[in-house]
Write a structure and sequence with these properties.
Elements: E1 4-9, E2 12-17, E3 24-27, E4 34-35, E5 46-51, E6 60-65, E7 73-74, E8 77-78, E9 85-86, E10 92-95, E11 98-103, H1 111-121, E12 128-131, H2 141-156, H3 160-175, E13 179-185, E14 192-198, H4 212-217, E15 222-225, H5 233-241, E16 244-254, E17 257-267, H6 276-328, H7 335-349, H8 354-366, H9 376-379, H10 387-393, H11 396-404, H12 414-419, H13 440-455, H14 466-475, H15 483-490, H16 494-498
Parallel strand pairs: 3-4
Antiparallel strand pairs: 1-2, 1-11, 3-5, 5-6, 6-9, 7-8, 7-10, 10-11, 12-15, 13-14, 13-17, 15-16, 16-17
Helix pairs in contact: 2-3, 2-6, 3-6, 7-8, 7-13, 8-13
Length: 510
């Protein structure tokens, strides 16, 4: 099913098909793809564009706020102007007073549609009363103690299911109602989903046994059924069919976000010893705590999404720089990827932590990034370098360090970038460091870098065999290489190394 943007406001509804690769503009300007006429909406408020499928990700829509006056909100979180964010199925995009639901290829129906269907089913004039919110100070002391306990359990809950379970357990214990549930609109317009429940909310076939009309009545406020006749119409019939004599329904909200309902009832003549209004006041307080907790969880998920976007952007930027180096230097094309793999093998064999293994992987990818500052005629020279040319090559660790030093994610990798050509005996470059004054990452990258260089073909020499390179590394333990790390590298099986070495007979691109 194609992507859609389904919106609603007091002024009407919008159902818009998102057809890639068209850029979708949203705003008050009449030329915008989605024209919203309200004054709160900026002339060019937001923009959506299609990100096509890549090797690591499927095609998806992305949204950015275009510096609007009132802002754009994704799942209740205000977007940073001009910062793109990926859209997922079931996301809520607010350009107030409009509220849009995103439908993806595996589309489910939206919360807005469910609520509209409930509205169509609702009657008026039944024995229900709106209840103003009660503050916790109006509750009895015993209820306050229960509320404090509930707030702690709800605040600690890590996900929607845990939050719902903590809320209904608190309600069931404090109010004495037999049937308690946290409900939310389902994927079908006439469905209600049970997040958590106590008692007889779900039937034997999984059907949800509550009054939809009652839920509709409490979409924007607390409603209480006090017992007695339920009246006529859809509402009365649904209550009568379920033998409901006492019921409370409270919306769970935070700001403009609607999460569902806390629902309580007693059936077949059973009632709670707690007065309905006192029980409703307690339920209202629990609903507010539940809404705040769910909003915090939603914000946390959005932050995870922002972090993932940043990681992907960072990774893409690093990959682009590595490709730029490969384009300049055909002798070492693919070298960075292979050094990264050899560095990971060595870090694992040395029993380093997961954090250090990841540092070795990324540092292997970027260790030669400074070659972007070395002239191509030197990098591409098919014969041995003159002294002045080698001096230019020797500058690439410092150039790489300068390129990466202002990137926060790179700070722990800078020693490896700067020191991967230092030698254990102090004869390396750029600073003639010696022994353990060379960082662990620098010593590790030195071995991985040299192994790939020796097992790769050059115009002026063929690739060496693994056996030859092993002998050379063993010969240089304590001079070129850290003796302890070198022995660890020599313990790695040939089969693990062979699957990663360059198979090119001559340097690529020549």
């Amino acid at each position: 099913m194609p992507w859609r943007l389904i919106g609603s406001s007091v002024d009407g509804d919008i159902d818009f098909a998102l057809n890639p690769p068209t850029v979708i503009t949203i705003g008050r300007d009449v030329d915008c793809t989605i024209h919203l006429g309200q004054r709160q909406v900026s002339r060019l408020h937001a923009e959506m564009h299609w990100a096509p499928e890549s090797g690591i990700d499927r095609g998806h829509w992305r949204v950015r706020d275009c510096g609007s006056t009132s802002g754009s909100f994704l799942n209740g979180v205000k977007l940073t102007p001009h910062r793109e964010v990926r859209l997922y199925h079931s996301d809520t995009l607010e350009i107030r007073p409009w509220r849009f639901q995103v439908e993806g290829p595996s589309s489910d129906q939206t919360i807005a549609e469910v609520c509209q269907t409930l509205a169509d089913d609702a009657d008026s004039g039944e024995q229900f009363v709106a209840l103003g919110e009660q503050s916790p100070k109006d509750l009895a002391q015993g209820m306050l103690v229960r509320l404090l306990a509930a707030s702690e359990d709800i605040a600690k809950a890590p996900d929607e299911l845990s939050v719902g379970q903590a809320a209904i357990e608190a309600l069931a214990s404090a109010t004495g109602f037999a049937n308690v549930a946290f409900l939310r609109p389902g994927s079908d317009a006439r469905m209600i989903e049970v997040v958590a429940e106590v008692g007889e909310i779900s039937g034997s076939r999984g059907e949800v046994q509550v009054s939809r009309s009652l839920l509709k009545r409490s979409r924007n406020g607390i409603y209480v059924h006090r017992g007695g006749g339920a009246g006529s119409g859809t509402l009365g019939a649904s209550l009568e069919s379920l033998s409901i004599r006492q019921a409370i329904s409270v919306p769970v909200e935070a700001g403009t976000n609607f999460f569902g309902w806390l629902y309580l009832d007693n059936r077949s003549g059973g009632t709670s010893e707690l007065h309905e209004l006192e029980a409703a006041g307690f339920a209202s307080a629990v609903a507010r705590l539940t809404g705040l907790s769910l909003a915090n969880i939603a914000r946390g998920k959005m932050q995870q999404r922002f972090d993932l976007e940043s990681q992907q952007m960072f990774g893409g930027t690093m990959r682009a720089l590595i490709r730029a180096i490969d384009a300049k230097d055909p002798y070492t094309r693919g070298h960075s990827d292979r050094v990264s793999e050899f560095a990971v093998l060595l870090a694992r064999a040395a029993a380093l932590s997961d954090e250090h293994i990841e540092q070795a992987r990324v540092c292997g990818l970027v260790h030669d990034i400074g070659k972007i500052g070395v002239p191509e005629e030197i990098l591409r020279k098919p014969t041995h370098l003159e002294a002045h040319e080698f001096d230019r090559i020797r500058q690439h660790p410092e150039i790489g360090h300068a390129i990466l030093r202002d990137i926060p994610q790179m700070r722990d990798l800078l020693p490896g970038v700067m020191q991967h050509h230092e030698r254990w005996d102090g004869s390396g470059y750029p600073h003639n460091l010696k022994g353990e004054s060379i960082s662990m990452l620098g010593r590790l990258l030195c071995i991985a870098d040299c192994f790939d260089a020796m097992t790769s073909a050059r115009f002026y020499r063929p690739a060496r065999s693994i056996a030859e390179v092993r002998s050379e590394i063993e010969r240089c333990l304590g001079t070129h290489f850290d003796p302890e790390l070198g022995r660890v590298f020599l313990s790695i099986r040939d089969s693990e190394l062979a699957s990663r070495i360059s198979t090119a007979i001559t340097p690529l691109g020549l």
